[in-house]
Specification:
The chain has 517 residues and is α/β, with parallel strands linked by helices. 47% of the residues lie in helices and 11% in strands. InterPro entries: MeTrfase_RsmB-F_NOP2_cat, MeTrfase_RsmB-F_NOP2_dom, NSUN5_7_fdxn-like, NSUN5_RCM1_N, RCMT, SAM-dependent_MTases_sf.
Length: 517
């Protein structure tokens, strides 16, 4: 039995989902939803039957007869009446009268649809991909800031009675017995459980030790692999699972600038990363594309993670993706235009990342299956620069690589195929600077030229030179000799300048004395 407020909120959620700017989980598990599990269930089930309910609404003309009902509210109420658990709407008397008045007509229209489709029961009306969706295993990332993989494995064995099975890959993951789990075959911080395992009330999930994250979306942090102490940018950070993964691999040592333009989503990132125990993340409510790469604040950024907005065409086992399959039809002109727009945006994020003077590695990923968003974006990015190349070490242990002929060195990028790899459809690549110390040398040379040409007093010149020495000491040891030569050259030039100033001063004094005599 549901209250009027519950039905009204459910109708508003349907309206939000119709805009295709959020997901079922995000909107039903939001803070303002009181009965979260119940709301998640009714929204999921209503969406499954939505095409049928829409036809019933049109044939019965209920909206013409009941002016106070919105279409979304009618959809929710009709679902609960014909397909759900509502018998008489006793707890919602405001809707009870309306539904009782129209019950016979609504039932009659449902019967007609069943006869036409030769359906014995309601479930027979559903398309096959909704009745029997492709189900993935439940992947759980161990948050290394809170515990270790071995400790978590031990917890499940001793406290929860689970049996650890050998690590396997691909289609072998299709068969899981209850109360069993595995370590992941490829990623050291990932565990795999049966698909129906629910962790939302588990103490290790509640305290942030476990992160519910698909295996493929764990690839980018491992591809980027910044060592502890690194300075990192996550250019499209919310909701924050990949950001917290980077922090986990870095052991909270270093700094991560986490950008997101959406204030609400950034708030979600703050909550999730705080729960995960991340202390090295600085959330920034700005557009990454509008940041100044030469801002001193980002001078030490050497790693950038990019997971920009995409079509989401690789996501499976999620109802909101199944119901929007028409939006993935690449023969549709509107879909083609949308994919082109997305790919242009994705390219712009990579090209902007290229501009950061000291960046060494950039990971680029999408949860898309489309070449235009994946290999084509990588190819266009490489064509726009001579300073970066594809890293040959992009999840090297992963067998499935890029599409043949799509980009030079297609074997340097990685793809996933849900029905064979048992993960969501995903693409990941990694760019690395060809000469990572070249920009540092240019920066020092430019700074030195500025020092020599400026008309500052000697103390200011010496102070600037000290700053350059500090900067050069932070570069890689392999380049220290070149950097020191640059500094020594500068120091010599400055000494010459000092001597010249002293000589000019001496000549000036001599000339003055001669004039006085």
């Amino acid at each position: 039995m549901s209250s009027p407020g519950f039905y009204i909120q459910a109708a508003k959620i349907l309206d939000k989902l119709a805009l295709k700017k959020t997901t079922i989980k995000a909107v039903t598990l939001a803070d303002d939803v009181k009965e979260k599990k119940k709301m998640y269930a009714i929204i999921n089930e209503t969406l499954k039957y939505k095409p049928i309910i829409t036809e019933i609404i049109e044939k019965s003309q209920i909206l013409k007869n009941e002016k106070k009902l919105s279409k979304s509210l009618a959809i929710i109420l009709i679902y609960d009446l014909l397909f759900g658990h509502a018998k008489n709407f006793k707890n919602a008397p405001v809707f009870q009268k309306i539904m009782n008045k129209n019950k016979a007509r609504l039932n009659a229209e449902l019967v007609k649809i069943k006869i036409r489709n030769k359906a014995i029961n309601n479930e027979d009306l559903l398309p096959e991909e909704i009745k029997n969706p492709f189900i993935l295993p439940r992947y759980v990332r161990v948050n290394l800031l809170k515990s270790t993989v071995d400790k978590v494995v031990n917890y499940f064995q001793k406290n929860d009675g689970y049996t650890l099975l050998p690590a396997v890959e691909g289609k072998e993951l299709a068969h899981f017995k209850p109360k069993t789990f595995r370590k992941d075959f490829h990623l050291h911080d990932l565990l795999v459980f049966p698909s129906n395992t629910d962790f939302h009330d588990h103490p290790l999930y509640i305290d942030g030790t476990l992160i519910l994250q698909d295996k493929a979306s764990c690839f980018p942090a491992h591809v980027l692999s910044p060592p502890p102490g690194s300075v990192v940018i996550d250019g499209c950070a919310a909701p924050g699972n990949k950001t917290s993964h980077v922090a986990s691999l870095m052991g909270n040592k270093g700094h991560i600038f986490a950008f997101d333009l959406d204030k609400r989503r950034l708030g979600l990132l703050k909550r999730l990363t705080t729960k995960a125990g991340c202390t090295c993340i600085e959330p920034i409510n700005e557009n990454f594309l509008e940041t100044d790469p030469n801002d001193p604040k980002y001078a030490n950024v050497e790693y950038i993670l990019l997971d920009p907005s995409c079509s989401g065409s690789g996501i499976v086992s999620r109802l909101d993706q199944i119901l929007n399959q028409k939006s993935q039809d690449t023969s549709n002109k509107l879909v083609q235009e949308r994919l082109k727009s997305l790919s242009d945006f994705q390219l712009s994020t990579i090209q902007h990342a290229f501009k950061f003077p000291n960046v060494k590695r950039i990971s680029y990923s999408t949860c898309s299956i489309h070449q235009i968003e994946n290999e084509d974006v990588v190819r266009r990015a490489l064509e726009s620069t001579k300073e970066f190349k594809l890293s040959a070490h992009c999840i090297p242990q992963w067998k499935r690589r890029g599409l043949d002929g799509s980009v030079e060195n297609a074997n340097y990028v990685a793809r996933t195929l849900p029905e064979e790899d048992y993960v969501i459809g995903f693409f990941v690549s990694c760019f690395e600077r060809i000469n990572p110390n070249e920009n540092n040398n240019k920066k020092i040379e430019n700074d030195n030229k500025e020092d020599i040409s400026t008309t500052k007093d000697d103390s200011e010149v010496d102070e600037k030179n000290d700053d350059d020495n500090d900067n050069s000491s932070s570069n890689n040891n392999s380049n220290n000799n070149n950097n020191n030569l640059g500094v020594l050259k500068t120091t010599g030039s400055i000494k010459k300048k000092k001597n010249k100033k002293k000589k000019n001063k001496k000549n000036k004094n001599k000339k003055t004395i001669e004039q006085q005599t």
